[in-house]
């Protein structure tokens, strides 16, 4: 057992040694230690003292969390049937432990005693906030409820989990069950790779023609490029009526949506709130459902003229260039694509040749070093794949702490078999002045992307979207690693309000559009030239294509979600709310058969209920934060201003969750966020 790498809790995870057979025995030990710590900490001999509670409970859950984090990470990036089996076998008992921990009445009483004690009243601000968050978590987890109410609360949680799961299964099944076999002629206009893939899919079933499905890699290119209008309509109709009454009853989500909304309202009532939206906002930056709907309506009002202009242009182009006089919902993506091609002819393929990976990384690291007074250096650690790299961030600039280790990160850049698609930042460990060992634990992060690996000895070529993704994830990583807070519950991204967590990530995306930096990020794979200005100008021109329409669409989803969860009784009038929101917001009303809400998994099966607005909310914050750099720009260095970089780092990245997101923002900007920068960046001012 002493040789089990998952039990080596000091130092970095031993990714090169962890085997599937280590998982269950290690978790047996760590879960048992965590259980024992929980039992001990709630006992009468343990005083309600911050350090004592942290030493007993935080250390045990950190060890468990780190080991489980390593297993989860391998399951995501180095999936094999064995590691997946070990992960799935242990997932239920991990979930069960944390759920129980979060609603333990005895533990809640202990924390409450601490909060009410003299010590609790005079904690340093970061600790006070960590304690406040912990207490809030208990209350929202039903820890204050008694008797029947307590039982019903637990029952509601289980019912919601089961119904959300069923909702998402219906959407998946409805997506999977649909197939349309098209002839080659019907697919005129569709890209060749999609034609080939759909032919193979039909062939695999022994069928003629091309198998079209509702999965994105098929649906999207067909709806965007197929010249055949009837085909587009067929797919659009199928896509927007998934899991609705238009299909088989066993996959119809109508009743589940009503039940979920009723259960959420009941949960809110038990907790003493007027609506589920009020519950959802307790731990968020937004203060009330009214504040959110006011924000959305204000943004809708400002975006509307631009959306109307976008729509008029589409209609005009469809009429004059494509001979279409009655633009329908299933024509919009197709006409949009044609208009975009006509107006900004350039190909992603051309752009890619300039964004060679080593230059992009060098440019990104240089930006981080300039803005945030750090140095990024190669470092070494055990890894799970030969292409994974490891780096360390050291303090630079002037001062006694120059050369001090700030944090470390793994960079796993390329797509490969057994790796989950997408890109993400994950924490390996957070900054923490540990109660059990001397010194400060420095933060470590995973940065995972899925770029196409370079061919032969050529470097990987990134699309501009890839570059934006990389910057986005580094924004999360910097938030995690540059923190100066030493309390684990509120250091880095821990304890940051959910609707503000995308501020540092979206903030970084802005730099990908700055000419001064783009020159440093590019080096043509064959000629070594940086991106030509003419190509850059085309990219900039295309950046805000149809931003008015897209903004209104996001607002439509957000307002629908917020009203649904803020208005008791909405479970009986879901379609009516959809219709009202569209009448209020949309510039083109979708056809009456459209049932997008039946597959709106974000709010019915994901964590976004009464939270979908967060996307736009955080975009306001990140755009306004970036505007501080624009305001201080100089002809020589553009927006790459180290003074503003330091202010941003200190107010937002270093403070992390130890202050409210609003306080952090105000510490940086000296005022509350304004919407102007977002509108300007998206060409709506
Ligand atoms: Zn993000």
Please give the order of strands in the largest beta sheet: 3-4-5-9-6
Backbone shape: globular
Structural class: alpha+beta
**How far is it from the N-terminal to the C-terminal residue, by CA?**
64 Å
Helix coverage percent of residues? 55-70%
Q: What is the percentage of strand-forming residues?
A: 5-15%
CATH class of the largest domain: Mainly Alpha
Using only CA atoms, what is the Rg?
A: 26 Å
Query: Segments where pLDDT lies below 50 for 5+ residues?
Result: none
Largest sheet: 5 strands, mixed
Strand runs, count: 9
Named at the architecture level, the CATH assignment of the largest domain is Orthogonal Bundle
Small ligands present: zinc ion
Number of discrete helical segments: 27
Overall pLDDT = 94
Question: Could you explain the architecture of this structure?
Answer:
It is a single chain. Helix content is 56%, strand content 7%. The chain has 685 residues and is of the alpha+beta class. It has four domains: 5-102 and 104-140, Endopeptidase. Chain P, domain 1 (Glutathione S-transferase Yfyf (Class Pi), Chain A, domain 2, Up-down Bundle); 178-241, no CATH class; 251-346 and 547-612, Neurolysin, domain 3 (Orthogonal Bundle); 357-541 and 615-681, Neurolysin, domain 3. The strands form three sheets. A five-stranded mixed sheet has the order 3-4-5-9-6, sandwiched between helices. Strands 1-2 form a two-stranded antiparallel sheet. Strand 7 (432-433) and strand 8 form a beta hairpin. Bound molecules: zinc ion. Zinc ion binds next to helix 17.
């Amino acid at each position: 057992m002493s040789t089990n790498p998952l039990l080596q809790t000091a130092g970095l995870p031993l990714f090169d040694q962890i085997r599937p057979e280590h998982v269950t025995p290690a978790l047996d030990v760590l879960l048992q230690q965590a259980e024992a710590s929980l039992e001990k900490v709630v006992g009468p001999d343990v005083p309600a003292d911050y350090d004592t509670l942290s030493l007993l409970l935080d250390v045990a859950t950190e060890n468990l969390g780190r080991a489980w984090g390593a297993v989860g990470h391998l399951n995501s990036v180095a999936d094999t049937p064995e590691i997946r089996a070990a992960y799935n076998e242990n997932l239920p008992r991990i979930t069960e432990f944390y759920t129980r921990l979060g609603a333990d009445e005895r533990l809640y009483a202990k924390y409450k005693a601490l909060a009410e004690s003299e010590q609790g009243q005079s904690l340093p601000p970061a600790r006070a906030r960590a304690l406040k968050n912990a207490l809030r978590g208990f209350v929202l987890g039903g820890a204050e409820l008694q008797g029947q109410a307590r039982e019903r609360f637990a029952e509601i949680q289980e019912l919601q989990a089961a119904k959300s799961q069923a909702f998402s299964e219906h959407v998946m099944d409805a997506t999977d069950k649909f197939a349309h076999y098209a002839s080659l002629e019907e697919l005129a206009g569709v890209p060749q790779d999609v034609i080939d893939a759909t032919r193979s899919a039909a062939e695999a079933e022994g069928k003629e023609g091309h198998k079209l499905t509702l999965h994105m890699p098929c649906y999207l290119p067909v709806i965007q490029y197929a010249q055949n209008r009837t085909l587009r309509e067929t797919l659009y109709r199928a896509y927007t009526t998934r899991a609705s009454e238009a299909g088989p009853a066993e996959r119809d989500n109508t009743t589940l949506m009503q039940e979920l909304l009723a259960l959420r309202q009941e949960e809110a009532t038990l907790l003493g709130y007027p609506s589920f939206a009020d519950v959802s906002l307790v731990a968020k930056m937004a203060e009330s459902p009214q504040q959110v709907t006011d924000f959305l309506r204000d943004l809708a009002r400002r975006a509307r003229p631009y959306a109307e202009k976008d729509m008029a242009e589409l209609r005009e182009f469809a009429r004059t260039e494509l001979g279409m006089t009655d633009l329908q919902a299933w024509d919009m993506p197709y006409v949009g694509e044609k208009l975009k091609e006509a107006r900004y002819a350039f190909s992603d393929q051309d752009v890619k040749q300039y964004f060679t990976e080593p230059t992009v990384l060098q440019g990104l690291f240089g930006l981080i070093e300039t803005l945030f007074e750090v140095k990024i250096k190669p470092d070494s650690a055990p890894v799970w794949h030969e292409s994974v790299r490891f780096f360390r961030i050291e303090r630079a600039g002037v001062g006694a702490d120059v050369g001090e280790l700030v944090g470390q990160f793994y960079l796993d850049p390329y797509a490969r078999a057994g790796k989950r698609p997408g890109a993400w930042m994950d924490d390996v460990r957070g900054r923490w002045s540990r109660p059990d060992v001397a010194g400060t634990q420095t933060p470590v992060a995973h940065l995972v992307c899925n770029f196409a690996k370079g061919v032969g000895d050529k470097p990987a070529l990134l699309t501009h979207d890839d570059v934006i993704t990389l910057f986005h994830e580094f924004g999360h990583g910097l938030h995690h690693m540059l923190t100066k807070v030493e309390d684990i519950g509120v250091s880095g991204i821990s304890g940051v309000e959910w609707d503000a967590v995308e501020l540092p990530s979206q903030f970084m995306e802005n730099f990908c559009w700055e000419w001064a930096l783009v020159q440093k990020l590019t080096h043509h794979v064959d000629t070594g030239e940086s991106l030509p200005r003419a190509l850059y100008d085309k990219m900039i021109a295309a950046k805000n294509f149809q931003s008015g329409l897209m903004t209104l669409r996001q607002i439509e989803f957000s307002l629908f979600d917020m009203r649904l969860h803020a208005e008791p009784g909405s479970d009986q009038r879901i379609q009516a709310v959809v219709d009202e929101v569209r009448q209020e917001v949309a510039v083109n009303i979708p056809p009456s058969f459209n049932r997008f809400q039946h597959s709106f998994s974000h709010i019915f099966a994901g964590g976004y209920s009464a939270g979908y607005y967060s996307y736009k909310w955080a975009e306001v914050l990140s755009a306004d934060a970036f505007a501080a750099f624009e305001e201080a720009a100089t002809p020589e260095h553009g927006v790459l201003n180290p003074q503003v970089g330091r202010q941003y780092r200190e107010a937002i990245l270093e403070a992390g969750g130890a202050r409210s997101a609003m306080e952090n923002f105000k510490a940086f900007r000296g005022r509350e966020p304004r919407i102007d920068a977002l509108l300007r960046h998206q060409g709506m001012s």
